[in-house]
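Q: What residues go here?
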């Protein structure tokens, strides 16, 4: 009797598309800006559920500052919404993400980033 486990032929995980990264990151950034009682741990869980394992709020924000994310938003139709966000709202979020990326100190982490977003939102109101 053979008791060795037979190897399981697992399918490779599908590649995470630029659109999934961009739309997931935008949705969580919008959540961070609108939710007053949210913490970095919750944002990281949300990012992982929307984009995939290994992604954090910080890496998602870095993604939004890049050219590939810009190309995804540019390619969307002008009319309608995507995940509840209009194309203009996405552009505004991307500008904010880019501005935040420019301010990051070497020690920046998810908590620093969330504190910066909350401070910017308070200043805007």
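A:
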């Amino acid at each position: 009797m053979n008791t060795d486990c037979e190897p399981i032929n697992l399918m490779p995980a599908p590649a995470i598309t630029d659109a999934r990264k961009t739309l997931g990151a935008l949705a969580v950034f919008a959540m961070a800006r609108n939710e007053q009682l949210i913490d970095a741990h919750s944002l990281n869980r949300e990012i992982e559920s929307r984009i995939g394992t290994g992604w954090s709020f910080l890496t998602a924000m870095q993604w939004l500052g890049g050219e590939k994310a810009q190309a995804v938003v540019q390619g969307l139709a002008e009319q309608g919404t995507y995940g509840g966000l209009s194309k203009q709202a996405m552009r505004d979020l991307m500008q904010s993400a880019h501005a935040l990326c420019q301010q990051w100190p070497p020690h920046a982490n998810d908590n620093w980033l969330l504190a910066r977003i909350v401070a910017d939102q308070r200043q805007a109101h």
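A: Context that may help when evaluating the design: The first strand starts at residue 81 and ends at 82. Residues 19-29+45-75+82-124 form one domain.
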